[in-house]
């Protein structure tokens, strides 16, 4: 039987449930579900997975948009519950809720969620002097090392 290029169409006809499961898994972020995991779960090869991904590209993008909308609805409901219960929450609960909400707000608005600050008031001359000092320390540390032992050749003669 000649080799045929996998397209996923045969899988769609013979095992439609596996085909649909594969499309659903392909809609997940790749860091959550790898091709290897999809192959293991669905019992198909990598070429079939890639063929289905190409054939269903629009459907997969639609699923991703649907998942994003659904996730936002769930997040909104959860946020509403938190907001409704925050007045009666203890400080131990309110503090982390506040921190997470602020961080997610910054993240969603495109703001930085971390700040790294380097505050060195070194001039070029100071940096060069520091470099020379470190180089001198290295030279001093290496100087007292003994010179390598010369290699001796010996021959054992049976007597």
By helix and strand content, what is the structural category? mainly alpha
Alpha carbon gap, first and last residue: 76 Å
**Low-confidence runs:** none
Q: Approximately how much helix is present in the residues? A: 55-70%
Q: Could you report the average pLDDT, rounded to the nearest whole number?
A: 82
The major β-sheet equals: none
What does this 3D model show about the protein?
- With 159 residues, this protein is mainly α.
- The chain is built from 7 helices and no strands.
- The protein has helices at 9-14, 16-27, 35-42, 46-55, 57-85, 91-108, 124-142.
- The model has no long low-confidence stretch (mean pLDDT 82).
Structural descriptors:
single chain, 159 residues, mainly alpha, 7 helices, flat
Q: Gist?
A:
With 159 residues, the chain is an all-alpha fold. Helix content is 64%, strand content 0%.
Layout of strands and helices, then pairs:
Blueprint (H helix, E strand, L loop, with lengths): L8 H6 L1 H12 L7 H8 L3 H10 L1 H29 L5 H18 L15 H19 L17
């Amino acid at each position: 039987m000649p080799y045929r290029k996998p397209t996923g169409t045969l899988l769609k006809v013979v095992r439609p449930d596996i085909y649909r499961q594969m499309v659903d898994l392909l809609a997940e972020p790749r860091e959550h579900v790898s091709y290897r995991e999809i192959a293991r779960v669905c019992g198909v090869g990598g070429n079939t997975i890639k063929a289905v991904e190409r054939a269903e590209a629009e459907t997969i993008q639609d699923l991703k948009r649907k998942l994003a909308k659904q996730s936002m609805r769930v997040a909104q409901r959860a946020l509403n519950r938190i907001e409704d219960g925050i007045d009666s929450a203890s400080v131990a609960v309110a503090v982390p809720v506040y921190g997470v909400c602020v961080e997610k707000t910054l993240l969603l608005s495109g703001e930085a969620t971390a700040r790294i600050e380097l505050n060195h008031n070194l001039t070029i001359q100071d940096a060069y002097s520091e470099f020379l000092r470190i180089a001198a320390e290295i030279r001093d540390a290496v100087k007292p090392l003994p010179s390598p032992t010369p290699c001796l050749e010996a021959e054992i003669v049976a007597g």
